[in-house]
Amino acid sequence: MPIPSIIAIDGPAASGKSTLGRRLADSLSYLFFDTGVMYRAVTWGSLQHGLEISDEAAVTSLAETAQIDVRPPSKEDGRACDVLLDGVDITWETRRADVEANVSPVSAYRDVRKALASQQRRIGLRGRVVMVGRDIGTVVLPEADLKIYLDASAPERASRRYKEILQRGGQADYDQVLAGVRSRDEIDSNRAFSPLRAAEDAVIIDSDKLSAEEVFAKVEALCR
Ligand code: CDP
After folding, report:
1. Ligand 1 mean position to 188 CA, how many Å?
2. In the chain, helix, strand, coil percent, each to 5?
3. Helix (H) or strand (E) segment spanning residue 84
4. Which atom of ligand 1 is nearest to the CA of 39?
Protein backbone atom coordinates (compact mmCIF):
# COMPACT_ATOMS: atom_id res chain seq x y z
CA MET A 1 0.00 0.00 0.00
CA PRO A 2 1.42 3.44 -0.88
CA ILE A 3 2.02 5.92 1.94
CA PRO A 4 -1.12 8.07 2.29
CA SER A 5 -0.65 11.47 0.70
CA ILE A 6 -3.50 13.39 2.36
CA ILE A 7 -3.67 12.74 6.09
CA ALA A 8 -6.46 14.27 8.17
CA ILE A 9 -6.27 14.47 11.97
CA ASP A 10 -9.35 15.64 13.85
CA GLY A 11 -10.30 15.70 17.50
CA PRO A 12 -11.31 17.88 20.44
CA ALA A 13 -9.28 20.66 22.08
CA ALA A 14 -5.84 19.70 23.35
CA SER A 15 -6.12 16.04 22.37
CA GLY A 16 -2.56 16.09 21.02
CA LYS A 17 -3.44 16.60 17.34
CA SER A 18 -0.78 19.22 16.74
CA THR A 19 1.99 17.26 18.45
CA LEU A 20 1.09 14.18 16.44
CA GLY A 21 0.57 16.08 13.19
CA ARG A 22 3.82 17.96 13.44
CA ARG A 23 5.81 14.82 14.12
CA LEU A 24 4.15 12.83 11.42
CA ALA A 25 4.66 15.60 8.85
CA ASP A 26 8.34 15.84 9.83
CA SER A 27 8.88 12.11 9.51
CA LEU A 28 7.21 11.98 6.08
CA SER A 29 8.62 15.35 4.89
CA TYR A 30 5.03 16.55 4.37
CA LEU A 31 3.51 19.96 4.95
CA PHE A 32 2.00 20.32 8.43
CA PHE A 33 -1.12 22.48 8.41
CA ASP A 34 -2.88 23.26 11.67
CA THR A 35 -6.22 24.76 10.59
CA GLY A 36 -7.05 25.90 14.14
CA VAL A 37 -4.58 28.77 13.75
CA MET A 38 -6.76 30.29 11.02
CA TYR A 39 -9.82 30.40 13.30
CA ARG A 40 -7.60 31.79 16.03
CA ALA A 41 -6.26 34.47 13.65
CA VAL A 42 -9.79 35.61 12.74
CA THR A 43 -10.68 35.69 16.45
CA TRP A 44 -7.60 37.70 17.33
CA GLY A 45 -8.26 40.12 14.47
CA SER A 46 -11.88 40.57 15.56
CA LEU A 47 -10.85 41.35 19.15
CA GLN A 48 -8.08 43.63 17.94
CA HIS A 49 -10.53 45.64 15.82
CA GLY A 50 -12.93 45.88 18.75
CA LEU A 51 -15.64 43.86 17.01
CA GLU A 52 -18.40 42.27 19.06
CA ILE A 53 -17.86 38.52 18.70
CA SER A 54 -21.65 38.17 18.55
CA ASP A 55 -21.70 40.42 15.43
CA GLU A 56 -21.70 37.64 12.85
CA ALA A 57 -21.69 39.98 9.83
CA ALA A 58 -18.66 41.95 11.05
CA VAL A 59 -16.67 38.88 12.06
CA THR A 60 -17.52 37.17 8.76
CA SER A 61 -16.47 40.19 6.75
CA LEU A 62 -13.12 40.19 8.55
CA ALA A 63 -12.68 36.46 7.83
CA GLU A 64 -13.46 37.05 4.16
CA THR A 65 -11.11 39.99 3.69
CA ALA A 66 -8.18 39.43 6.07
CA GLN A 67 -5.01 38.01 4.60
CA ILE A 68 -4.08 35.01 6.76
CA ASP A 69 -0.72 33.42 6.05
CA VAL A 70 0.55 30.23 7.65
CA ARG A 71 4.23 29.68 6.91
CA PRO A 72 7.06 27.43 8.06
CA PRO A 73 8.49 28.63 11.40
CA SER A 74 10.90 31.57 11.08
CA LYS A 75 12.01 31.32 14.72
CA GLU A 76 12.98 28.48 17.01
CA ASP A 77 10.82 29.52 19.94
CA GLY A 78 8.59 26.45 20.07
CA ARG A 79 6.20 27.56 17.33
CA ALA A 80 4.99 24.99 14.80
CA CYS A 81 4.48 27.66 12.14
CA ASP A 82 4.34 31.42 11.67
CA VAL A 83 0.84 32.89 11.67
CA LEU A 84 0.49 36.26 9.95
CA LEU A 85 -2.56 38.45 9.74
CA ASP A 86 -2.29 41.17 7.11
CA GLY A 87 1.48 40.77 7.21
CA VAL A 88 1.85 41.01 11.01
CA ASP A 89 3.30 38.05 12.94
CA ILE A 90 0.62 37.12 15.49
CA THR A 91 1.79 33.56 16.19
CA TRP A 92 1.85 33.83 19.99
CA GLU A 93 -1.06 36.29 20.14
CA THR A 94 -3.31 33.52 18.81
CA ARG A 95 -2.60 31.50 21.99
CA ARG A 96 -3.90 34.21 24.31
CA ALA A 97 -6.64 33.30 26.80
CA ASP A 98 -9.08 35.83 25.31
CA VAL A 99 -8.61 34.28 21.86
CA GLU A 100 -9.11 30.80 23.31
CA ALA A 101 -12.30 31.94 25.06
CA ASN A 102 -13.82 33.39 21.87
CA VAL A 103 -12.57 31.10 19.10
CA SER A 104 -15.40 28.54 19.27
CA PRO A 105 -18.22 31.07 18.77
CA VAL A 106 -16.29 32.55 15.83
CA SER A 107 -15.73 29.09 14.34
CA ALA A 108 -19.43 28.33 14.53
CA TYR A 109 -20.29 31.01 11.92
CA ARG A 110 -21.15 29.37 8.62
CA ASP A 111 -19.52 31.89 6.31
CA VAL A 112 -16.38 32.15 8.44
CA ARG A 113 -16.04 28.40 7.98
CA LYS A 114 -16.78 28.66 4.28
CA ALA A 115 -14.06 31.28 3.76
CA LEU A 116 -11.40 29.39 5.69
CA ALA A 117 -12.30 25.85 4.63
CA SER A 118 -12.01 26.69 0.92
CA GLN A 119 -8.44 27.92 1.46
CA GLN A 120 -7.66 24.80 3.51
CA ARG A 121 -9.09 22.52 0.85
CA ARG A 122 -7.08 24.18 -1.93
CA ILE A 123 -3.86 23.63 0.02
CA GLY A 124 -4.78 20.10 1.13
CA LEU A 125 -5.58 18.87 -2.36
CA ARG A 126 -1.95 19.43 -3.36
CA GLY A 127 -1.19 16.32 -1.28
CA ARG A 128 1.79 15.37 0.89
CA VAL A 129 0.04 17.10 3.72
CA VAL A 130 -0.95 16.43 7.32
CA MET A 131 -3.94 18.65 8.06
CA VAL A 132 -5.21 19.03 11.60
CA GLY A 133 -8.55 20.40 12.84
CA ARG A 134 -12.15 19.50 13.67
CA ASP A 135 -13.75 18.88 10.27
CA ILE A 136 -10.87 17.89 8.02
CA GLY A 137 -11.91 14.26 7.48
CA THR A 138 -15.62 15.08 7.32
CA VAL A 139 -15.86 18.35 5.34
CA VAL A 140 -12.57 19.93 4.24
CA LEU A 141 -10.90 16.84 2.77
CA PRO A 142 -13.37 13.94 2.82
CA GLU A 143 -11.18 12.21 0.22
CA ALA A 144 -8.21 12.05 2.63
CA ASP A 145 -6.25 8.80 2.33
CA LEU A 146 -5.91 8.38 6.09
CA LYS A 147 -8.19 9.86 8.74
CA ILE A 148 -7.33 9.85 12.41
CA TYR A 149 -9.69 10.95 15.17
CA LEU A 150 -7.63 11.62 18.27
CA ASP A 151 -9.56 11.68 21.52
CA ALA A 152 -8.86 11.83 25.27
CA SER A 153 -10.92 12.62 28.36
CA ALA A 154 -11.50 16.29 29.21
CA PRO A 155 -9.43 16.17 32.47
CA GLU A 156 -6.49 14.58 30.64
CA ARG A 157 -6.66 17.15 27.85
CA ALA A 158 -6.96 20.02 30.33
CA SER A 159 -3.96 18.73 32.22
CA ARG A 160 -1.90 18.65 28.99
CA ARG A 161 -2.97 22.18 28.03
CA TYR A 162 -2.26 23.41 31.59
CA LYS A 163 1.30 22.02 31.50
CA GLU A 164 1.83 23.47 28.02
CA ILE A 165 0.91 26.97 29.22
CA LEU A 166 3.22 26.71 32.24
CA GLN A 167 6.04 25.42 30.06
CA ARG A 168 5.72 28.50 27.87
CA GLY A 169 6.16 30.62 30.98
CA GLY A 170 2.49 31.57 31.16
CA GLN A 171 0.10 31.43 34.11
CA ALA A 172 -2.96 29.26 34.35
CA ASP A 173 -5.48 27.78 36.72
CA TYR A 174 -6.24 24.10 36.07
CA ASP A 175 -9.96 24.39 36.83
CA GLN A 176 -10.29 27.31 34.45
CA VAL A 177 -8.42 25.45 31.72
CA LEU A 178 -10.74 22.46 32.23
CA ALA A 179 -13.83 24.68 32.07
CA GLY A 180 -12.50 26.27 28.86
CA VAL A 181 -11.84 22.90 27.24
CA ARG A 182 -15.34 21.68 28.17
CA SER A 183 -16.98 24.83 26.87
CA ARG A 184 -15.16 24.61 23.52
CA ASP A 185 -16.03 20.89 23.25
CA GLU A 186 -19.67 21.76 23.79
CA ILE A 187 -19.77 24.50 21.16
CA ASP A 188 -17.57 22.67 18.62
CA SER A 189 -19.61 19.46 18.87
CA ASN A 190 -23.06 21.03 18.75
CA ARG A 191 -22.73 23.75 16.14
CA ALA A 192 -24.93 23.50 13.05
CA PHE A 193 -22.14 23.66 10.46
CA SER A 194 -19.30 21.10 10.35
CA PRO A 195 -19.54 19.99 13.97
CA LEU A 196 -16.68 18.11 15.53
CA ARG A 197 -17.18 14.39 14.93
CA ALA A 198 -15.23 11.41 13.70
CA ALA A 199 -15.61 10.57 10.00
CA GLU A 200 -17.15 7.12 9.44
CA ASP A 201 -13.87 5.87 8.00
CA ALA A 202 -11.62 7.45 10.64
CA VAL A 203 -9.32 5.42 12.87
CA ILE A 204 -10.25 6.45 16.41
CA ILE A 205 -7.41 6.64 18.91
CA ASP A 206 -8.05 7.24 22.59
CA SER A 207 -4.84 8.76 23.90
CA ASP A 208 -5.78 8.86 27.60
CA LYS A 209 -3.34 6.14 28.52
CA LEU A 210 -0.90 6.63 25.65
CA SER A 211 2.19 8.83 25.55
CA ALA A 212 2.77 11.14 22.58
CA GLU A 213 5.43 8.65 21.47
CA GLU A 214 2.98 5.73 21.56
CA VAL A 215 0.34 7.66 19.60
CA PHE A 216 2.93 8.57 16.98
CA ALA A 217 4.12 4.95 16.70
CA LYS A 218 0.53 3.75 16.15
CA VAL A 219 -0.15 6.27 13.40
CA GLU A 220 3.21 5.80 11.75
CA ALA A 221 2.49 2.08 11.57
CA LEU A 222 -0.82 2.89 9.85
CA CYS A 223 1.05 4.98 7.26
CA ARG A 224 3.85 2.63 6.31
O1 CDP B 1 -5.13 23.43 19.91
P2 CDP B 1 -6.58 23.23 20.26
O3 CDP B 1 -7.03 21.84 19.98
O4 CDP B 1 -6.93 23.70 21.62
O5 CDP B 1 -7.41 24.21 19.32
P6 CDP B 1 -7.21 24.54 17.79
O7 CDP B 1 -7.03 23.30 17.00
O8 CDP B 1 -6.19 25.61 17.66
O9 CDP B 1 -8.65 25.14 17.40
C10 CDP B 1 -9.18 26.27 18.03
C11 CDP B 1 -10.67 26.33 17.74
O12 CDP B 1 -10.86 26.55 16.35
C13 CDP B 1 -11.47 25.07 18.05
O14 CDP B 1 -11.95 25.02 19.38
C15 CDP B 1 -12.62 25.15 17.06
O16 CDP B 1 -13.65 25.96 17.56
C17 CDP B 1 -12.00 25.87 15.88
N18 CDP B 1 -11.63 24.98 14.76
C19 CDP B 1 -12.63 24.56 13.90
O20 CDP B 1 -13.79 24.89 14.11
N21 CDP B 1 -12.33 23.83 12.79
C22 CDP B 1 -11.06 23.47 12.53
N23 CDP B 1 -10.80 22.77 11.43
C24 CDP B 1 -10.02 23.84 13.43
C25 CDP B 1 -10.34 24.59 14.55
Report:
1. 8
2. 50, 15, 35
3. strand 82-85
4. 12
C-alpha of 160 from chain center: 15
Task: Give the E-state strand segments of 86-195 in sequence order.
Answer: 88-89, 129-133, 146-151
pLDDT tens-digit profile, the chain (224 residues): 789 999 999 999 999 999 999 999 999 999 999 999 999 999 999 999 999 999 999 999 999 999 999 988 899 988 888 999 999 999 999 999 999 999 999 999 999 999 999 999 999 999 999 999 999 999 999 999 999 999 999 999 999 999 999 998 889 999 999 999 999 999 999 999 999 999 999 999 999 999 999 999 999 999 98
Q: Which residues pair with 33 in a beta bridge?
A: 131
Q: Are 71 and 117 in contact (CB under 8 A)?
A: no
Q: Which atom of ligand 1 is nearest to the CA of 43?
A: 12
Q: How many CB atoms lie within 10 A of CB 49?
A: 11
The amino acid at 95: R
Q: What angle do CA 12, 20, 123 make, to 5 degrees?
A: 85
Rounded to 5 degrees, what are φ and ψ at 113?
-60, -40
The answer to whether residues 64 and 116 touch, using CB atoms and an 8 Å cutoff, is: no
Output the CA 1–ligand 1 centroid distance in Å. Answer: 31
What's the pTM value of the predicted model, to 2 decimals?
0.94
Domains along the sequence of the chain with CATH: 6-218 (3.40.50.300)
